[in-house]
Amino acid sequence: MRLNQKLFWKLVKLLVFVNNPKHYVSQQRKLRVLQRSVSRKQKGGSNRKKAVRLLSKQHERVANQRDDFLHKLSYTIIKENDKICIEKLNIKGLSGGFLAKSVHDAGWGIFFNMLCYKAEKAGNRKIVKVDPKGTSQRCNKCGNVVKKALSVRWHDCPVC
Fold first, then answer.
1. Segments in the chain below pLDDT 70
2. What sequence ranges are listed for the domain Cas12f1-like TNB (predicted)?
3. Is residue 91 a part of any domain in this protein?
């Protein structure tokens, strides 16, 4: 099957996936070493204060990297799209379980807030929050529901 080049680039633009850079996970070894250094120092000592300062600087660096990435990503999304649909996720519920570190590292809540205020600032941009229940099983054209396993990532509607 051959695709018209114009159509191909529209599809590519619609299907852009952004990988999570995992700022915290990539800096975890350094943070672990600094935390160990703090725990080995005597409480109240000047060397401990220096170690605590280094540890907090490293945590701040991770937070700044995450904020920078999220600001750039939200700016790009707002600039290129008039209508943005995001899932109305229970981030608090997700961040308390098995995926806690990954959810916090990705910064979903901060990202959604950034999208909302940047869309409001841009003026004519619209943010739609969608209930995530059944979104991967319901066809967006005809509304037909096709049950599938969690491992299946693409929707193929038999009716359409």
1. 1-16
2. 108-160
3. yes
Alpha carbons 101 and 59: distance in angstroms, whole number: 14
Q: Is residue 14 part of a domain?
A: no
Q: Is residue 136 part of a domain?
A: no
Angstrom distance (rounded) from CA 16 to CA 18: 7
Do residues 114 and 121 touch, judged by C-beta distance below 8 A?
A: no
Alpha-carbon span 143 to 131, nearest angstrom = 15
Count of structural domains, the chain: 1
Is 156 among the domain residues?
no
Amino acid identity at 153: R
d(C-alpha 49, C-alpha 55), whole Å: 10
Contact 146, 139 (CB under 8 A): yes
pTM of the model: 0.77
